[in-house]
Task: structure prediction
Amino acid sequence: MPGSGYKGAQIDDVDHFLKGGGIDTEREQDIGQHIGYRYDVNLLPDYDRLTPFLKDYLEFMGWDDLNWLEDVHMGYDDGQAAVFDRNINGWVAIPEEMELPDNQQDRDMIAREMLIKFQMSPDHPLVDLYKAYRKF
Amino acid sequence: MAGMSESTSTQMGMHTEPLTGRDIKTKFTLENEGGFAYHFARDVDFNRRAEIDCAELEPTEINRQIRELMDSGHGSIVIRNPGAKHSLVVGILNRMNIIVEGSLGYFGCGLLDGPTVRIAGRVGWSFGENMMAGVCVVEENAGSTFGAALRGGDLVCKGSVGSRTGIDQKGGTIIVGGDTGAFSGFMMQRGRIVVCGNAGKNLGDSMYDGTIYVGGDIRDLGVDAVQAELTDVDRAWLTRKLNMYELLPAQGVDHFTKIVAGKQLWSYDNLEPTEKKLVL
Result:
């Protein structure tokens, strides 16, 4: 299980999108940009790989499983590992010095943990947006 | 637009822009580290419980009272006599326990991000619309567009639901204990729909991505929805998820059919006319 399925084909190299950017098909080469997600959005989480931080988070929230985090994966943007933050509609890059695990499941768990830490930070852009646009 | 020069179109307010490079990019640093809740979330205690009797209240007043109880630290709220009123329990960006002792009308539990909500009765159209995170469990039936544009979390209806369930779904999990109507999973982009009963016509029509599992009969599939192999990972996930909500069938999950996007529509504009006919 080094990588995951993508565009109907098995990706054997977990670093596929770090190396190539995901412009694979003839159509993508024609238009010069990728089509669709650069990771397998349908990859179901392996609960044996939960990190201690994630276990604490689930207990805090009162949930029995990863809930919304089941849809969070480590993606790849401009040749760099990143996680997509839906609250800012943008990618949050994983520090380059961080050593990535050799499989997508463990990478996804790291992405989930980092995204929570980022979203719950007082420096997150949503804090300012909330002040500016909250209705109640 | 024939004959229109670029300057004319610019004067009219139109302009061209590159399709790439529009993402916001932020670099994660350890200084970003926070706690487990949004910085602006209320600090609530699940053991502090309160009740709201809705019999004589308007929806706006009910939602205001929920927020005031959250402000005062209440983490468990019981909604009595909801009377199928519309737009109740919406816009809560907090961990919470909410119990609704009755039925909700249209657009109940929309725009939630975090709470766990249990509804003892039925719900109307567009329940759980745009939910970001959390859990909503409906004990009886639900109307159409259940979980429209769902972004995350678990949305569960133990009864049957109307048509267009999970329309434009962008994440999360929708679970239906009974049957679902026509056009379920219409234009879904990601996430999972689990139907323990039967599915109506045009299931997964124009779905871009995501997965639909059906335990009963499928009347027919929509455009670009195709059957895929149910894997051991699927079985394990289905078993765990359905067990969580006491919906696991006695015979297990081996009989479920898995539906995914055929992805022919991903590059629709590049298809030859005959290929387009094939897809549609």
Observations:
- The mean pLDDT of chain B is 90.
